[in-house]
Amino acid sequence: MHSNSNLLITTSNPLWGRILELAEKLKLKMPEGPHKWASKKDVTNALISNNLKILKSENVLLLPIHITILSHIANKVLGNIPIIKKFGLIQVVIAKIRN
Question: For 45-98, how does the pLDDT look when each residue is reduced to its tens digit (9 = 90+)?
Fold first, then answer.
């Protein structure tokens, strides 16, 4: 990375771990093998300890399948409520080199 670079890390939310593992067993999603579920806190701590500054950290995608109207309400409306937002499937962390 150089001083103007941003690092984008996306991971699956560990709260979804059992659901994703079940979906794999039922062949509802592509198999990925064993997982080490890293929390957003684990990711941000690793970045901070390596001299990176966190620019943004959030969870997105409450409903990962398309269901007309319901997906939009879940992901755009409910997904912006702080207490509910932590249940989003995807954890997003954006960081850059600390100056």
Answer: 999 999 999 999 999 999 998 999 999 999 999 988 999 999 999 999 999 998
pLDDT of 43 reads 96
Beta bridge partners of 6: 96
**What secondary structure does DSSP assign to 1-35, as a single string?**
--TT-EEEEEEE-GGGHHHHHHHHHTTSS------
CA pair distance 25, 59, nearest whole angstrom: 25
Q: Is the separation of the CB atoms in 43 and 27 below 8 Å?
A: no
pLDDT at 10: 96
Whether the pLDDT of residue 33 is over 90: the answer is no
Q: Six-digit token pair at 72? A: 């939009």
Q: Which residues of 76-92 are buried (b: 16+ CB within 10 A; e: fewer)?
A: eeebeeeeeeeebbebb
- β-pairing verdict for 52-60 and 90-97: antiparallel
